[in-house]
Structure formats: C-alpha cells, structure tokens
Prior knowledge:
single chain; alpha/beta; Rossmann fold; 2 domains; 6-stranded mixed beta sheet
Amino acid sequence: MLVVGFPEGREGFAKLEAAVGDFAAGNVILFTRNMGAARSTWELVRDVRALVEGRTGIVPFVCVDQEGGTVVRLRNGVTPVPGAMAQAAAVGGGSFSLADVRGLGRLVGSELLALGINWNLAPVADVNVNPSNPVIGVRSYGEDPRKVADLAAAFAAGLGDAGVLAAAKHFPGHGDTAVDSHLGMPLVPHDLRRLEAVELPPFRRLIAEGVAAVMTSHVRFPAVEPDELPATLSRRVIQGLLRERLGFKGLVCTDCMEMKAVSGLMPEAAVRAVKAGVDLIDISHTLELQRASARAILEAVLSGEIPESRIDESWARIAAAKARLKAPPASWEESESLLATAASLDFSRRLSHASISLIAPGKGFPLAPGSLYVDVEPANLTGAEDGSGGRGAVADSLRALAGTGGAPEVGVLSLPLDPEPSAVAAVLAEAAGRDVAVGTYDAFRHPGQAELVRALAAAAERGGKRFAVMSMRSPYDLRLFPEIEARGAAFSCAYEYTPLSARSAAEFMLGLAPAAGRCPVSASSRGHA
Length: 529
C-alpha cells in the first residue's frame, strides 16, 4: 500500500533498497532526479522492478507524473508533449480532435511502458475556474467542466490503450483554490450543488469510463467534510462521495504525503488515510518518514485501530490491478525502437503548433525586421514542477530561424523571472525606437515582470511603435494588462515554456506559422478568444 520515492544516484538507490528490505515497500515513484538518458532510465526501472519483486514476490507499480507541458519527469530520449491546456487549445481551434488527444495518451503510455513504467499519475481532471490558482492553471484542460471531462477522459483512455494505468487527479477538484497544497491547506468553500456542477463532472466521466485510479487532493471541502480534514484524510470524501455517491471501484491513491498541507500530521496522517479508505499512500522523498509511516500503519492494525478487513479491501484492489498489468519489452533494443520515433515527434510538433493562441488579435505579430524580443526565462513555480527544461529556448529559436522562409532577423534580450528596476531601465534604452515584443511567465505573480511589460507598452505607444506580448505560460496574464487590448496590441499564449513550445511560439512570431489555437479559459476581460 506504500508508494515510495528515493534520492538520485547510487546512494539514493541504497535508500530504496532499505525501504524494500525493511518494510517491503511495494511500489515506487520516480522523479527527474532519478532519470538521465533513456537507456539509464530503462536500466534503473529494470533494477527497481527486480528489487521489489524479489523481496515481495509481486510486481510493483512504477509511477511518474508525465502530464506533459510544465509537469514531466522524463525528458531525455522520449517524445516531448504539450500539457493539458495546450492540448485543449489545439482541439478548441479545430486543428486536432479528441481522438488525437487519445492518440497522445497512447503515445505517452507506450513510451512509459517501453521504459518499464506502468502507471502515469495523469490526467489532471481539475476544472481551473480560479485565475489566481497557483498550482493547477495550465495543467488543467480549462474552465468548462464538460470539455475538461472530454479531454481528460480521452487522454486517460489513450494511456489505457497502451497498457498503462491512469490516475484522475486531484479529487474532488483542485481547480478553484488560491493556495498551493505543496505549501499549505487550500479550501474549496462551495456547496454540494456547485461541486456537482463544476468540480465533479470530469471525475464522474472518468469513473464511468473505467479509469484505473483516482488521486485525492490535500484540500478541504467543508460541504462534504465539516471536520476540517483534507480530502485525503476524510472518510466522508473517499468512502461517502467517491465510492458510494460516484460509484468508484478502482484504486484510490494519495497525492504526496510530504506536501505541507499534511506533512506536519505524518506519520499519523498515513494511518488516517488508510482509515478513510485510501489504497495507496505516496511518500515521495524521505526514507525515515516512509519507515515511520509503515510502522504506524502496522501498529494501528495490530491494535485494532485499523481492522484487517480494511487492509484486505485495498489489497484485493491492488492485486486485481497488478494482475492486469502489461509486461514491458524484454530488451533495451526493443524499447529503444518505441521511443521518440519520427512519427511521434512530428505529431507532437504539429500539436504544439496548433495550440498557439492569439487571444488579443491586435498589432505586433508577426515581428518586423529589427524588432526586439525580450525573453523572460522560466523557473519552477510550483511544487509539482521538477526541473525547468526550457531556459533560453525562445531566444535560441528566434536566432536559429532568422532568414528561414523569409523570417526576419530580430534582436533578443533575456531577463530573469522578476527583473530589477535597473534591468527594466536597460531594456527600455535598448528598445527605444523599435517595435517590441515581450515574453511573460506568470507576470501576475512577479511585480518586476509586470512593470517591464507596462513600461515597454507605454514606451512603444509614445514612440508610435508596435507592441505585443507572448505569454509562455498563463493566459491570465492578459487580465493584468487591459491596456494591451485598449491600445490595439497583440497578446498570444503558448501555455508552457519548453523547447517544443518555444519553437512553436518563435515560428508564429516570425510569421512562419499561424496561431490556430483557441484559449480554453476566459483570459481576456472581454471573454474567450
């Protein structure tokens, strides 16, 4: 019933060996820290599976968060894929279909299984209706519950086609929160009628279509659980709402129990989660906490606090799911042939292109010769992100594409996520007398970045020059700058800063490709675009 993570390298693997040896940890979660080149990842997973199966006699779940976009664990040797909101934009624009999203899930699942990984902790089924949501945002398929249900169900079905388990997360819904549960305890204050209308439809759909697992959120829902417990620790949420009201019969797993929302309650929280009805408890990082939690659960069973029948229920569900697992390829050569194929790379590239959305279709794109592009480089903004894979990629793409197909040469400057006033002043001097475009990356959380945009927009207006913004993450940045629309400037969104999206954004900005996506949230105060 435990899912454990371990640090990088040989020393980290020794801690996994201790976890498996000391308390028969039966399942493993991997992060970027554990994975290098594709072959070394394949070898690591082979060793993990052999270790666990040798100790327990049972195949382990080996899981990752491979959502796409901003939340991925594998980057080397696999096909890069757009995240949920980018997928939704491509489908909303008409260039791609739900069948294509299912195909993307199949692609991701096939590559995971080729590496020996049999469970993807995706899709995100949260409906992002809160523009200030600090942890979901572009990880969501959007703000329309029906469309989120369609898209999440399609991706999950594709994972299933490939023989990989999917997990709908974060139940009952993390989309209307203003606190990152990695850092604190969020609250969704709405009544049950509202939950039934907004938060629950995607989960109902995924459950009806047979999703293998549902991941609980460390979020409070007082309409369901009045005792100030997060969903993960609430029997009313797990047994009452999920099992009885929604009829879910599959695996219930937790989000990481080392997140700040519940970590202070550990290891007692692990016991309470089991009592609430959880099947699999994720403790992603710390051997000592894993060991203490295993001991606490065992002692609770021996004392009668947890009935053995409660353990038997989870064991039956876990055993049934493991009996249906598809075996990975037997050799590296067979696995390698399935990774990052020409067809999969082309499919992902076209999907990325189709996601670029022109939300405010004013002047400014495509960039004219001699324009200046100011690139604000990305960083991890939430506890869900694990390594920033796109630094400098927009600037590199703009430079590489200059002169290709008639693309103009443009100047490029790169700034940190939250530039100081002195850096803003230097950019203003460089931008004088030029058309300007600026990339943003959650500007509404970074005052220096917001000031940069406002200062450049005002300077362009004074000088009679064109101005545009390319959001490399949140479409909600437009709400911070109503003057962009008022002045007739353009605002586009790529939904994520990765090498893949950077190339797509650069090709659009240079006039080499259209912006065919349709934003799946109300980014503009004027509505959808």
